[in-house]
Design goal:
heterodimer, A: mainly alpha, B: alpha+beta, twelve-stranded mixed beta sheet, five-stranded antiparallel beta sheet, elongated, Phosphatidylinositol glycan anchor biosynthesis class U protein-like (chain A), transmembrane helix (chain A), endoplasmic reticulum (chain A), PIG-U (chain A), transmembrane (chain A)
Chain lengths: 378, 659
Amino acid sequence: MEKTRWFWVWVITSLFFRLVLIYFPENLNLGFRPEVATPLTSLRRLAEGYWLKQSSMSPYAGSMYHGSPMLLSILGPLTVKRIEGQPSHLMCSLLFVVADLVTAMLIRATGQTLQLAYSQSLRSLNLVSLLESSETLSAGDIAALVYLWNPLTIITCVGSSTSPIENLLIVLSLYGACLRIAPLAAFGWVLAMHLSLYPVILIIPVILLLGYGPDAPPRKLFLQKNSSENGNSPSCHGNYPCNEVTSQEKLPLHPFLWRPVMHFMLWASFWLFYVFVLCSISLKQHGGLLEMLKRTHGFILTMEDLSPNIGVLWYFFAEVFDFFRDFFLIVFHINILFMILPLAIRLKHRPCFLAFVYIAISSMLKSYPSVSFHSCSS
Amino acid sequence: MAFQWSVLYFLVLLQVSFTPIFAGSSGEEEFSEELLLRPLPDRKVLAHFHFESRAPPTEIYGHHHRLFPKAIYQLVQKFQIREMELSFTQGRWNYERWGGFNPITSANAKPPGVELWAILDVPPDQVDASWKNLTHTLSGLFCASINFLESSTAYSSPDWAFQPSSRSLRYGALPREAVCTENLTPWLKLLPCRDKAGLAAILDRPSIYRGFYHSQRLRLTSTEVGSEKGMESGIVLEQTLTIVLEPDAQRPNTNHLGGRVLQPSWSLRSIFGREISGRCVLAKYSTVFIEVERNLVSELKKLGRRRGVAEIASDSWTDPFFDLSVTPDKTIKEMNVTHGDSSSILYEFSTEKYLDYEPFDVGLTWKLPVVWSSPQAPFRASRFLIGSGNQRGSIAISLKSTEPGEGFMSDLAREGCTVRVDVFQVVPWYVKVYFHTLQVFVDGRHRRVTDALEKIHVSPSEDKVSPGLMEMVLRFPCSMKSATLTIEFDKGFLHIDEYPPDANQGFDIPSAVVRFPDFQASTYYLKDNSRKSALLSKFQEKNLLLSYTEILLVPLATPDFSMPYNVITITCTVFALYFGSLLNVLRRRVGEEERFLKEASMRKGMLPQLLSKLSAKLRGKYKDSPQSSSSSSSLLNPKLMFKVALVAGIAVGWHYYFE
């Protein structure tokens, strides 16, 4: 009880801290920092896109806005609505604070689910003593507090960039997958992909989570446990298939469940269709879906904007010779895709960690990185 | 008999059909040369050359011309030009001192560098292709880098703010183009007498380029093409050269008269170093004007009244204030409609009667000191940059009222009266303007944009494709003293190949055009007799009042030009490091390796064992988690237990790392 009270105190303090920072935006000027706001996530660009749309032009006219049209219709009105005497981005910042809070709560819930699954698998391994030793504070609480008090998250939230929303969607997808709620996982995944393309690789951990459950220790452990219980030959040296007789008995502890995965696929295609329909409705006069894909995902893939950010790609593409450009674009993007399969094989029993590694890799290697994605690493 | 009749009929028909050609003077090619000199308030002299060539429509005149330059005729025919204007300018027109409210200013004060606009009478999808070819042709014709306007990032197609015109207008400007004699020579070659005779003969290059401002302009108006085919005057080529020169103070001792400084006296010889030796024989007329400005006339009148001297007489050529060295042939007075009591005076000289041995050298000698100021536009427009750093900034356009509550504004300064101001601005794509940040300050106070903005049209810039274009119609109250428009921008980053040779100098934003459509800069002159002058009829045309703002110099961040290879190498190294280390982590199983090492060390001595242990520790350091708690389990198989503990430890380590 004491612990939960402390947790809530810290959560409220972090939110208060954010609100305080939001009131001094002019001094911080975080929205202009290239580390915080990339061409994809800048709220200024979103405001410009909204202005263009209001003056009955395509929001993608000019090379200003590269986000989703749905984000435009949600956040756009908030950028122009201003309360007398307050900074203009106040409404959006409040929304981002709420998004951060929701993300933290989802992380907490995910963490609790994980811990439950973890303790279950430990119990089945007869390693209850490990459980007791790590009983200080719930992992979910710690994760949520780390997320809320992460300076990078705070900067992102205060610095008027749309990435808190993207983080929220990624975490929502993982949460849904952890609890095996296929529609929720599909919703988060589709929207996160729609907003910033790179979460598309999260489909593998999400499927693993849905299939195996949040924590599936490698079979090897069970085999070893069984073998040690049976007091079998020490000459095996961990070459686990050495006694196949006993391993056959208890092997399928965590079978892969195809049902939630199929549900996920169905729901994902449904949400994708839904998102595309909404986008094409909002962009009916301005070139439609093709234009949107060209201006959002195409912009991410082709590295058109060479303004500095914390990645290495912009400087590289500002200097590289033009006839090598396509080659290096392919190479750098393949670098992200290349590691997906080996990591998935190696870490398939810890899908959440796998998701974390994927997010970390893509946030390092993506074309317009910012600190916000590193803030996801909780 | 019938044959005779038919021949007669044919002759009559022939005569009838040929009559229009020989009937009026408009059926002939024409060339005229005129020069206007005007003393400026700040001790300088404005010389404005105006050459006009006319070619009758091709339909009735044919393709061969005696006077009209063949190059221009072919240009018009090939690119279907309806209107075109090309100007080369060096220096900036000083609107404050040299006047902003007269026909010469609004037509001839041009932004520095090259400015080109053209209305092409071709189908809309071919306009861009035609424009590109046109820029290349002009580039060759005038020895200038006009071909840089070919790229779609350099030109734009304004809708209405620049010229109230069709969709086929293209506008481009090269602010940094250096203008020199190699541009003037081809321009002069278009004249039938070149610079060998007539007024152009006094164009001494050193004295022109020593001036404070010079702008050579070429304007084409053609009715050859399009709907009005063969209706009117055919092709009109108008070549003007506007120069502001400072005459040498000839008698510095006598310049001070009664404490006030006497304006410098000058003559053609003293400012150009040459005299006019007759006219170009091909010219229909060759005239020199000396203009006494409206404000100068009123100032002289005031002075005269104070001193009790007779008023300046419009029909006499001498007066108590200045002397003209040559008797003018005629004195023309402005037909004044709106501007108070005074009207400007033109002294006209015909150069026809002057010959080589008796050259024409008109001069003006001041007798009394006089101070005046040129008429100003209602607002003086200037533009500047706000902000610092290589990342972002703001463009500000400020309008300052020139005559607070006086002059031509006074009759408009009633309640509710407004002044319309059109702003036309092109920004290159690497200046990424945020149109939603447009702010309007009137008299220093922030106003809602919608209060002042009547109409706006923007076409936002596309990276590496097209420049940003902003056309605005603003309305301000007449009583306004000053207004400022600000708009924020981000500075873009260019690819290394896109930087010009001197990248650290910065990049130029072309001038904005500020127009005042409520005002007309036309001047009407009372002409008594028939002979019309192209220059004066130009003055009487509907001249919209406009002024160009300054060119802005935006410094952009520059990459390291010398070492693209280094950047490529270091980026690839970073990627290789990442890739290698990740692969290593994935492939290696530290626990097993350690075990193998241990087994190997059993067979070796103590020291290598320690060393290998240390190295294994170092290599697999991050896996050595502090948790090694599973010690209470059965001790049946220590190796197996070690492995289980290790894996559990790794799991806990991961857990902590992960949470």
